[in-house]
């Protein structure tokens, strides 16, 4: 019964509305009072049935819901034979629920649109070189897939043949096509606008960037903020209070119509729907702009951020550095280059990639053993040589000596903004590599915007040398900057700022950033960063687009304002209605219910404004 009513609830709403129209037509056009009363009676039953059942189901789990108040109001109108009011109350309540349902469906369209971007079938390469059409669910990692012009890319992978341009708006929010060629990465859910490519599958299903987007948006929209949880608790006590108030008024006045009207007007419908609709609308807007909020609480906390901490490599910079200087302290240069390249070949760190690009022609050896020293670098054994590759912290841990000339050379490279990679072979410094990274275009303007939006402290935390950190700080106009920091040092810095009463956001992309991302009030991960960084963060910026941060914080502030506005509207309407019914003669059940359902529509429309939010 309940499933049937739920399935056809909208039809019952429409039938109730039609019956009410026919009833008034019968009364005004055909002057048939009896026919009008009969149609209103039937309308009350049709519209009241799903409400009665919903109230009964709530009572079974010991919840006094809004549906119970409306049920009692309809029954009360029946008792006093006000079928006009009972029918209108039932219709307006059902119609309000319909509007709520439609609005939530629209605000959740981000998920629907994303899901529809994933194709159901694709062309997979067979052993004989031909391609067959198969279900995407049958695709495995390392499979070779063919994508033609206008086709949807079904997996994350690498282009191994052909070229074209891809529309990556579903991932980055940008509609400008991106050129794709040999060895370029492509993402599930994007569209190949022209060209033909073959891709080697790297990630499938939920593991793709696209799959994670959908999962994160779904989790965010299903979660509840503190405000929503408070409203839920408030409703549990508020609803019985209205019921008690109606009983007291009836006992004092013996006016059952007045008591029934109190039941109707006291329903906190707009209050219950106002907050979640605001949050879901804000999350939907963010998803369409490449910003993933992991829950409603994240939006509220983000709107209050006054201190923002930044990692450097891959965050404020492109994370695509190049070797700028090299200094050799070993007579056997080829050995130093070969051992360094052998170690860095095993790493996916941006500095390692820069070194591999620079020493692409070097012979690499087989690593016998390796150990990663967190915050320091790598210790390896290659061809009976102990090889240390990392920063000064690693060298000091292994008591590697530095001459005055070495210290002077390193200081000079640091002063020019280089990140330093030291290589020690068998206990002696053999090679120093200076690597420079380029600051992201437009970051300085974005940081200035953040200041204007109320973020007082913009602080750089980096494992790089202080000279490089200071250089970046001066270029970007940051308020503070600290270098030579280990992951635990960054986490401790976050704790200290939080202890001083600041609301802290941390922006990073690497594994070493994950402790700080998890500890901060708001962790913001660059979408092209490591999986662990994305998992431990609260906000994900797809395609590592730093320019999204001002939009994200502006959207968070707008969503919080919108939520407060909806709470105010809902409470104001209830208070005004209750005062009017107790102190005036013009207020009745039908008028009150019309105003009440109107307030639900108002808060819904107010929340929907967030779907079109753009930072000015």
TrEMBL record:
One GO CC term on file: plasma membrane
- What Gene3D superfamilies does its record include? Calcium-transporting ATPase, cytoplasmic domain N, Calcium-transporting ATPase, cytoplasmic transduction domain A, HAD superfamily/HAD-like
Entry's InterPro entries?
ATPase_P-typ_cyto_dom_N (IPR023299), ATPase_P-typ_P_site (IPR018303), ATPase_P-typ_TM_dom_sf (IPR023298), ATPase_P-typ_transduc_dom_A_sf (IPR008250), ATPase_P-type_domA (IPR059000), Cation_Transport_ATPase_IB (IPR051014), HAD-like_sf (IPR036412), HAD_sf (IPR023214)
Q: How does it sit in the membrane?
A: Multi-pass membrane protein
Known catalysed reaction(s)?
Cd(2+)(in) + ATP + H2O = Cd(2+)(out) + ADP + phosphate + H(+)
User: What EC number is given for this enzyme?
Assistant: 7.2.2.21
User: Residues in domain P-type ATPase A?
Assistant: 122-218
Mind listing the GO molecular function terms for this protein?
ATP binding; ATP hydrolysis activity; metal ion binding; P-type cadmium transporter activity
Question: Where would you say this protein principally sits, based on its record?
Answer: membrane
Q: Which CDD domains match?
A: P-type_ATPase_HM
User: Where is the protein localized?
Assistant: Cell membrane
SUPFAM superfamilies in the cross-refs: Calcium ATPase, transduction domain A, Calcium ATPase, transmembrane domain M, HAD-like
Q: Which residues cross the membrane?
A: 12-30, 36-56, 63-80, 86-104, 234-252, 258-278, 567-587, 593-611
Which key words are in the record?
Answer: ATP-binding, Cadmium, Cell membrane, Ion transport, Membrane, Metal-binding, Nucleotide-binding, Translocase, Transmembrane, Transmembrane helix, Transport
- From the UniProt record, list the coiled-coil ranges: none
Record-stated family = Belongs to the cation transport ATPase (P-type) (TC 3.A.3) family. Type IB subfamily.
Show the NCBIfam families listed in the entry.
ATPase-IB1_Cu, ATPase-IB_hvy, ATPase_P-type
Under which name does UniProt file this protein?
A: Cd(2+)-exporting ATPase
Q: What species was this sequence derived from?
A: Ligilactobacillus equi DPC 6820
Q: What is the lineage of its organism?
A: Bacteria, Bacillati, Bacillota, Bacilli, Lactobacillales
């Amino acid at each position: 019964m309940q499933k049937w009513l739920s399935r056809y609830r909208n039809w019952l709403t429409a039938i109730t509305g039609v019956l009410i129209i026919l009833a008034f037509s019968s009364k005004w056009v055909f002057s048939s009072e009896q026919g009008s009363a009969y149609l209103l009676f039937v309308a009350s039953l049709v519209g009241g049935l799903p409400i009665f059942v919903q109230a009964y189901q709530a009572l079974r789990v010991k919840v006094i819901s809004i549906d119970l108040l409306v049920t009692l109001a309809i029954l009360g109108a029946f008792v006093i034979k006000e079928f006009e009011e009972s029918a209108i109350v039932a219709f307006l309540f059902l119609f309000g629920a319909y509007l709520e349902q439609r609005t939530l469906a629209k605000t959740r369209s981000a998920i629907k649109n994303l899901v529809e971007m994933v194709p159901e079938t694709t062309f997979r390469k067979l052993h004989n070189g031909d391609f067959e059409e198969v279900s995407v669910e049958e695709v495995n990692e390392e499979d070779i897939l063919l994508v033609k012009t206008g086709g949807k890319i079904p997996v994350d992978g690498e282009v191994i043949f052909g070229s074209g341009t891809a529309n990556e708006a579903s991932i980055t929010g940008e509609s400008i096509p991106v050129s794709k060629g040999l060895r370029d990465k492509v993402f599930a859910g994007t569209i190949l606008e022209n060209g033909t490519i073959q891709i080697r599958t790297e990630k499938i299903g939920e593991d793709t960037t696209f799959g994670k987007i959908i999962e994160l948006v779904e989790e965010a929209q299903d979660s509840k903020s503190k405000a929503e949880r408070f409203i839920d608790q408030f409703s549990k006590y508020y609803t019985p209070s209205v019921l008690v108030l109606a009983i007291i008024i009836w006992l004092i006045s013996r006016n059952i119509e007045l008591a029934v009207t109190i039941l109707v007007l006291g329903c906190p419908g707009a209050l219950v729907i106002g907050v979640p609709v605001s949050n879901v609308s804000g999350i939907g807007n963010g998803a369409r702009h490449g910003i993933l909020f992991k829950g409603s609480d994240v939006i509220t906390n983000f709107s209050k951020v006054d201190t923002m901490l930044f990692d450097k490599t891959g965050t404020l910079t492109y994370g695509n550095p190049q070797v700028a200087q090299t200094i050799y302290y070993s007579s056997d240069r080829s050995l130093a280059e070969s051992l360094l390249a052998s170690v860095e070949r095993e790493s996916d760190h941006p500095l390692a990639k820069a070194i591999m690009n620079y020493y692409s022609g070097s012979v690499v050896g087989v690593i016998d053993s390796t150990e990663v020293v967190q915050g320091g670098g790598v210790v390896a054994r290659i061809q009976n040589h102990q090889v240390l590759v990392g920063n000064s912290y690693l060298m000091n841990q292994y008591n590697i000596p530095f001459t005055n000339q070495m210290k002077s050379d390193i200081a000079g490279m640091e002063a020019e903004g280089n990140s330093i990679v030291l290589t020690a072979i068998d206990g002696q410094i053999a090679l120093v590599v200076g690597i420079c990274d380029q600051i992201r275009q437009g970051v300085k303007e974005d940081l200035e915007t953040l200041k204007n939006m109320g973020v007082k402290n913009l602080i750089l935390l980096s494992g790089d040398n202080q000279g490089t950190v200071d250089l970046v700080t001066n270029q970007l106009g940051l308020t503070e900057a600290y270098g030579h920091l280990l992951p635990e040092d960054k986490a401790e810095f976050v704790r200290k700022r939080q202890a001083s009463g600041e609301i802290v956001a941390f922006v990073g992309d690497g594994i070493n950033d994950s402790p700080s991302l998890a500890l901060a009030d708001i962790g913001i991960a660059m979408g092209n960063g490591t999986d662990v960084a994305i998992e431990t963060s609260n906000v994900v910026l797809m395609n590592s687009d730093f320019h999204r941060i001002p939009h994200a914080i502006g959207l968070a502030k707008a969503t919080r304002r919108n939520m407060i506005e909806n709470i105010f509207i809902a409470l104001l309407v209830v208070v005004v209605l209750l005062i009017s019914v107790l102190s005036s003669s013009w207020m009745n059940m039908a008028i009150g219910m019309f105003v009440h359902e109107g307030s639900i529509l108002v808060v819904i429309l107010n929340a929907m404004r967030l779907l079109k939010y753009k930072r000015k």
